[in-house]
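Researcher: If convenient, please comment on what follows.
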Amino acid sequence: MAILTTNINYLQPTSFKLVIDRENYPNLEYFAQSISHPSMTVTAAELPFRKFRSIPMPGESLDFGEFSAQIIIDENMTGYSEMYGWLTRLVEQNLKGALDRGDGVVPATSDITLSILSSHNNTVKQIRYIGAIPTSLGEISFEATAAGTEFLTFSASFRFSHFEIV
C-alpha cells in the first residue's frame, strides 16, 4: 500500500547539483545551469486475442533517452575543455583499441550524480546515471551584437546503461 507524503513542498527547478566524476571533471559541478532528466520507455509486446486487435503486455527491456546538461562557460573554457578532452579521449582510445585488439571496445564510462535539493538546500534524493559516456558537445554561439550581460553556454549529452534513485 502506498503511503501519502507528508512533505507538501513542491520541487523547485533550481534545486539541483550535478557531479560528474569530481576527480576528472571537477568544473562541471559548478557551472551546470540546467539538466534534462531523460525519458524512460518500455515497448509493449502486442498479444493477439480473439475479436480484439491486440492486448498490450509489458515489454522485456527499458529504453532510456539521453541525459543532457546546459553548462555555463567560464572565461578559461575549463568545463568545455574537460568535456572536449573526454570526448576526444573516447574516440582515440576506441581507435587505438580497435587497432591493438581488433574489436574497438574500450570502456571509458563515468557515473553522473544528480542531487535533488530541498527548499533548505539539503540533498533529499539522488539520481545516479550509471556507466555514462558523452555523446555530443553542443555549439557555442559567440555574438558581437548581444545586449546586456549574457553568459555563453554549451550543451552536453550523455548515454548511460541505467539510472537508480537513491
